[in-house]
Amino acid sequence: MNLHALSSPTKSAAAPPRWAVWAAHLTTLVVLPSGLWRIAMVLGYPAGYTEAGFVPFETLGSKAWMLTLSVLCELVAFLTIGLVRPWGEVIPRWIPLVGGRRVRPMAAVAPAALGAVALTVLWVNVPWWWTYPHEDMTHTGHLLVGILYQPMALWGPLTAAVTISYYRRHRAAQRRGSTD
Hints:
The protein has helices at 3-7, 18-42, 51-54, 60-79, 105-123, 139-149, 155-179. The protein contains seven helices and no strands. 61% of the residues lie in helices and 0% in strands.
C-alpha cells in the first residue's frame, strides 16, 4: 500500500491571496526589531538600559536566554510563511519519515490559531509601553525600546489573518473534492 498516495490531496487548495502572502512575510519582519535589540544586549551593548539596569543582562544565562528568545521568535514567525507556501500543504521530501505527506489542514490551523491568540494576548499591551515606568532605562532607551517593540502588537493579528486565509482555502478545496 502506497502511503504517499493515501496522504496526497484529491483537490489542491487555491493559491493564497496576495495579501496573505504579504502578511505571512510581514510576520518575520515585525519580530526582527526586538530580536536585533536583544542581540545587541547579548553582544554587551546596554541598548537603552542604565549602567545599573543592564547588570542583570550581563550574565551568561541572561545572554543565552535573550539569544534563544530572539531565534525562537523568528523561527515561529517564519512558520507562518508555511501557511502560504507549498510546504504548508505537503511536507518537504527531505524530512525523514514524513516527507512527501500531505499536511492535514487542521494540523496547521489549530496550532496557528492558538498561537495567534497567544501572541495577541501576549503583546496587546505593547502600544501602552510608554505609560509604564522603566526606572532601569534611560529616557532615550525607553523611547527606543518602545518603538522597537511596537510591531510585536501586529504579530498575533497577522498570524490570525493568514491562518483564516489558509483555513478558507483548504475548506473550499475539501468541499470541491467531496462534490466531485
